[in-house]
Amino acid sequence: MNKNELISSIANETGLTKTDCSKAVDAFISSVTSALKAGDEVRLVGFGTFAVSKRSATTGRNPRTGAEIKIPARKQAKFKAGKALQDSVN
Q1: How far is CA 5 from the centre of its chain?
Q2: Can you give the pTM of this predicted structure?
Q3: What pLDDT is attached to residue 54?
Q4: Rounded Cα gap, residues 75 and 80, in angstroms
């Protein structure tokens, strides 16, 4: 499911217009992004948790040449599914 299909699905279930649903989805994405940038977690009970984890710097290899390359440290967004979501999938 892509973003447009998600918006259509929400519109069908709620009876809202696609424009309103699009604004709601965009606001949700913006809010989660802002919280993660600030270093906060976003917990949606029953659905899951969005969080930021830190990856340390490592060295890797270029597969073509075999030369070592440095992979810098960075932050990575992660999602951990909640129990209710996990149970509904299984």
Answers
A1: 17
A2: 0.78
A3: 94
A4: 16
Round to whole Å and give the CA distance between 30 and 36.
Answer: 10
Question: 40 is written with which tokens?
Answer: 């906060």
In 3D, which of 82, 81, 78 has the Cα closest to residue 53?
78
pLDDT in tens, 13-63: 999 999 999 999 999 999 999 999 999 999 999 999 999 999 999 999 999
Helix axes of 3-14 and 18-37: crossing angle, nearest 10 degrees: 120
The one-letter code for the residue type at 70 is K
Find all residues with CB under 8 Å of 81, minimum gap 6, and list them: 47, 48, 89
Which residue type sits at 22? S
Secondary structure class of 31 (helix, strand, coil): helix
